[in-house]
Specification:
The complex is a heterotrimer. Chain B is of the alpha/beta class. Chain B is built from 13 helices and eight strands. In chain B, helix 11 packs across helix 12. In chain C, the strands form three sheets. Chain C has a six-stranded parallel sheet. A four-stranded mixed sheet of chain C has the order 8-5-6-9. In chain C, strands 10-11 form a two-stranded antiparallel ribbon. The chains are: A alpha/beta, B alpha/beta, C alpha/beta.
Chain lengths: ~475, ~260, ~230
């Protein structure tokens, strides 16, 4: 998709003013938080499992070249094919090639953020294929011609009333008297429509939550079972995924699965976890006849061995997003690209450049909640700060901001001069603000005063008063002596 | 750190720029609490800022020079104490990382960091203060700053001490672990988002029906008090040190009286 | 379709940035060991120590997801138990299952149930599968693809019935994998292995959980005690 991350500020302002969006966000955000907290409290080993999950990924990343080679070999042995793509363009080309070769018309898709990353649907449509999203949330955003606003809940930004309106608008055979006000009615309607697509599909495309080197398997986790029907029913299954999804073996997957769903939706485990290893075997009555894995790099190999490597541990649980007060205020679309929230603030500049995505690592109060709930212990605020450092070095941050920071820092290193400058200033402000105790207007404080008052300073600095206090104490001691 | 405590530990008070400029009463309350617990307190003049504005804006070079100067001015004290979880967190958690390319200085910063504390946690965890002699009539809700809560792991200590204030009822707010939207420069770089966050915070605080919000970080408190004032709320805001020290002469933050 | 050069470029970039060559005996050895031994990590206590604990945890987990769990004494009693459930669910006395030898031995003559075999058809209302193993810790059934238990049976019909022999119930995922490795050989898996931990569900509309998204709306598990 075309990024609009450089418009973060206007995007965010529009989101804050959108009362329907605010209603949807308010309904959704607290649920994820309390469910995760409960799941964690019910598993005494949770924190230790997170440490272990972090170690598993660190080990894998340090040996990624070797695990990828083994994975490729195992996929080939099981009758599948691995394709390598350095860029989104190459990945799209590979997938279009497979779909053409299969003589495909309808293509079902399981939710894949990597597919969003490479803008796969527009490419499939342009080539004459009909891609159909089968994850309910992703299907809803597809018929709205939108993109997901959350990596695990694509329609996080919508209310049921909006979904009903979209179904009535696009499902032409829908009886207008049929009730569609309850979530179960909406789900039933989508089930009916999509069942038909599942059966028609020639090719199924899914992402992967993990790739297992030991067996050459792709692992996919869903509650709906849509990825399974996408895998099982079409003749050809394409797994579109990225190189950092690898783990060494089935024990390692087991360990990480214990923290994935708990961190994401607060479930102990998702309803379905599927290990897909090659096409159907001779004699099998179902399953895909051909099985392809497209392994995308898109900048990830360059994150290795550098300050953003830790981000490659991310398992896309969405916990950081669910707990981020900034995301909770503006929703996912304001971030302007595929990955929102704290994980997006770190990852997006790596993938589309800090020039385009510079706002994202800045739009954080560094409250640290994201890092606290990350099952992979990714130091997200630290990495956002790294981006700010890069922007500062490269002169990407706003000039006025850089100048003020420089000026403050210069003054902060000269305490005597600082006090000579600040003393009279706070004296004046203290006098001026004495009556109200705060200011509603002040020159140069517009951004602060836009939404809140500014406390008036007391008028004399601590250090000035402390000197007086010291002198008083000396005098008192002298008198006593 | 479990080294034995000197009889009269010498404390370098890191005043913080906000307390210095806006609200000296917090600094004096901190001095009173520390001296009351048997410390010798000094506030070296060669201090201004911990360097967070530069550090969090990506200006690592300036942050490092400020850190160097702070370490230089405070290294002689047994402990360095700040009435702020955020500034204490900067000294304790981030200074060592600033000197990754200077091994000698990194070592010094690491040793320095271990002696840096947030005021309330220092009182309870190091000085073993378990009660204060202060009075406050009314109900108080405590706002956890993100740095105190997550960076410094301080949550129980301020509540423990507040409960020992005579006449004070402690009430807890909903969504305690959520940021108030201050975030230093964040509040002026993204005022609208910051406003959404502080509005949610003041709503949660108001829900408690408490007379006063206490907190350990003047930045958050100026944000919350500024919003409450704009909303016309009657809720008052003070730094926890003022309440624990019984120093209530200064009017509440952003308020006339 | 992708050229060798893209593969080499990606692997090469990884090696360059990791400061590795790829032929270091230490690195290769660590990787080989990890693949060959799959050492177990932390196993949560809730995986259970003895069979009674495991059955309790397994049953409780599934029931919390709205799954019907029936304990059946032996295989002989299974058709009757299935017939009862179908009647309870108000479903036609029909089901489809695969060629699993254990299911093939079931004698349906005392029930009205008509059975068919093979992969799922679109109009099948009910399917019956045998889980090769299951794990107590999260109430998870493990089903493997093939003629014995075609994978489409797990997803297409609205009602999915699963037979699990109590002797096949494990505590943890790792233990279940050991059983699968024993069947298929280390490093090999059938085309599809499904973990099923409840009926299909979606919470995509206002984060409200609705059962019966694309897969089964109902899941019933028959735990057969026979040795």
């Amino acid at each position: 998709m075309q990024p609009s991350s450089s418009n973060f500020k206007p995007n965010a302002a529009a989101a804050l003013a959108d009362s329907t969006l605010q209603r949807a966000l308010a309904k959704a955000r607290s649920g994820f938080q309390s469910k995760r907290a409960r799941a964690r409290s019910e598993l005494p080993e949770f924190d230790a499992l997170c440490e272990q999950a972090k170690d598993i990924k660190n080990h894998t990343l340090a040996h990624l070249d070797l695990y990828l080679e083994i994975f490729e070999q195992k996929v080939t042995e099981s009758g599948g094919r691995v394709h390598w793509a350095r860029t989104p363009e190459q990945a799209r080309k590979l997938i279009l090639g497979i779909c053409k070769e299969a003589g495909a018309h309808t293509i079902t898709k399981g939710k894949s953020m990597v597919a969003e990353e490479i803008a796969l649907n527009p490419a499939l449509e342009a080539a004459g294929f009909q891609p159909v999203e089968t994850d309910l949330g992703e299907y809803i955003v597809q018929i709205r011609k939108e993109v997901p606003s959350h990596i695990i809940a694509p329609a996080f930004h919508l209310t049921r009333e909006q979904v009903e309106a979209d179904f009535r608008r696009t499902h032409l055979d829908l009886d207008k008297d049929r009730s569609l006000t309850k979530p179960e009615e909406l789900v039933a309607e989508a089930r009916g429509i999509l069942r038909d697509k599942f059966v028609k599909a020639d090719v199924g495309i899914t992402g992967a939550n993990f790739l297992v080197a030991e067996t050459g398997s792709s692992v996919i986790v869903t509650n709906e079972g849509n990825a399974d029907l996408t895998h099982l029913l079409p003749r050809v299954h394409i797994v579109l995924t990225t190189i950092e999804k690898l783990v060494p073996n089935l024990s390692d997957v087991s360990g990480i699965l214990r923290v994935l769903a708990r961190s994401a939706t607060g479930q102990d485990i998702s309803m379905y976890t599927t290990f897909m290893t090659g096409p159907r075997r001779p004699g099998d009555p179902d399953g895909p006849e051909a099985y392809h894995v497209v392994l995308l790099d898109n900048g990830r190999s360059e994150m290795l061995g550098a300050e953003f490597q830790d981000m490659l541990r991310c398992i896309r649980c969405g916990s950081c997003i669910n707990h981020c007060p900034v995301y909770g205020a503006v929703g996912g679309h304001a971030y302007g690209w595929v990955y929102p929230g704290p994980m997006g603030a770190v990852l997006t500049p790596s993938l589309i450049g800090v020039h385009e995505a510079g706002h994202l690592p800045n739009a954080s109060s560094f409250c640290g909640r994201c890092e606290a709930v990350c099952p992979m212990k990714i130091p997200l605020p630290k990495m956002m700060r790294h981006w700010r450092e890069r922007e500062f070095e490269q002169g990407e941050s706003p000039r006025i901001q850089r100048m003020s920071i420089k000026a403050w820092s210069w003054l902060a290193r000269r305490p005597q001069l600082y006090r000579r400058v600040m003393g009279p200033l706070i004296g004046l402000l203290g006098e001026w603000g004495k009556r109200r105790g705060n200011f509603r207007w002040l020159p140069m404080a517009g951004q602060w005063l836009k939404h809140r008052d500014l406390a008036a300073p007391a008028g004399r600095s601590f250090h000035e008063l402390w000197q007086l206090e010291q002198n008083r104490r000396i005098r008192e001691a002298d008198i006593r002596r | 750190m479990t080294t034995s405590l000197p009889d009269q530990p010498r404390i370098g008070l890191f005043v913080t720029c906000l307390v210095d400029l806006f609200r000296p009463s917090i600094g004096f309350a901190a001095v009173k609490l520390l001296e009351g617990a048997g410390c010798i307190v000094e506030a070296p003049l060669a201090q201004v800022c911990c360097g967070q504005p530069a550090y969090n804006s990506g200006d690592r070079a300036d942050a490092r020079e400020i850190a160097r100067q702070v370490i230089e001015s405070f290294d002689k004290y047994d402990y360095i104490v700040a009435p702020s979880g955020s500034c204490a967190g900067m000294l304790r958690k981030h200074y060592p990382a600033l000197f990754e390319d200077e091994p000698d200085m990194a070592e010094r910063a690491a040793a320095f960091a271990l002696r840096c504390y947030e005021l309330i946690a220092f009182l309870t965890d190091v000085l073993r203060v378990s009660a204060v002699h202060a009075k406050f009539s009314g109900s108080v809700t405590y706002h956890d700053s993100c740095s105190s809560l997550r960076e410094m792991g301080t949550a129980a200590q301020p509540r423990t001490l507040l409960r020992t204030v005579e006449g004070l009822t402690l009430v807890e707010a909903d969504q305690q672990d959520i940021c108030c939207g201050f975030g230093g420069t964040f509040s002026v770089k993204y005022p609208d988002i910051s406003n959404a966050m502080v509005s949610a915070k003041t709503a949660a605080l108001a829900e408690t029906g408490a007379d006063l919000v206490a907190g350990g970080d003047l930045g958050c408190l100026m944000n919350i008090a500024g919003k409450l004032a704009r909303e016309g709320s009657s809720m008052r805001v003070r730094h926890i040190a003022e309440i624990l020290a019984g120093e209530l002469d200064a009017p509440p933050i952003a308020s006339r009286r | 379709m992708s050229s060798q050069s893209d593969r080499d470029a990606i692997i090469g970039a990884i090696r360059k940035n990791l400061g590795a060559r790829g032929d270091e005996p230490g690195r290769r050895g660590r990787v080989r060991t990890r693949i060959e031994r799959s050492p177990n990590g932390i196993i949560p206590e809730r995986a259970g120590y003895d069979l009674a604990e495991r059955i309790d945890q397994f049953t409780a987990s599934l029931k919390s997801q709205g799954v019907t769990v029936e304990e059946v004494e032996n295989l002989k009693a299974l058709p009757g138990a299935i017939a009862t459930i179908l009647a309870e669910f108000n479903l036609p006395a029909q089901l489809r299952h695969g060629d699993d030898p254990l299911l093939a031995t079931l004698d349906w003559s005392d029930t009205l149930i008509e059975t068919q075999t093979g992969a799922a058809h679109l109009d099948d209302a009910t399917s019956l599968s045998r889980a090769v193993t299951a794990t107590a810790e999260t109430g998870t059934l493990v089903l493997t693809s093939g003629t014995n238990n075609p994978s489409t049976l797990n997803f297409l019909p609205e009602t999915h019935l699963v037979v699990l022999m109590t002797r096949d119930l494990c505590g943890s995922y790792e233990e279940a994998w050991d059983r699968i490795r024993a069947i298929y050989g280390r490093g090999n898996l059938p085309s599809t292995v499904n973990y099923v931990s409840g009926p299909s569900a979606s919470a995509d509309i206002e984060q409200t959980l609705v059962r019966g998204a694309h897969g089964p709306k109902r899941l019933a598990v028959f735990l057969v005690a026979e040795k």
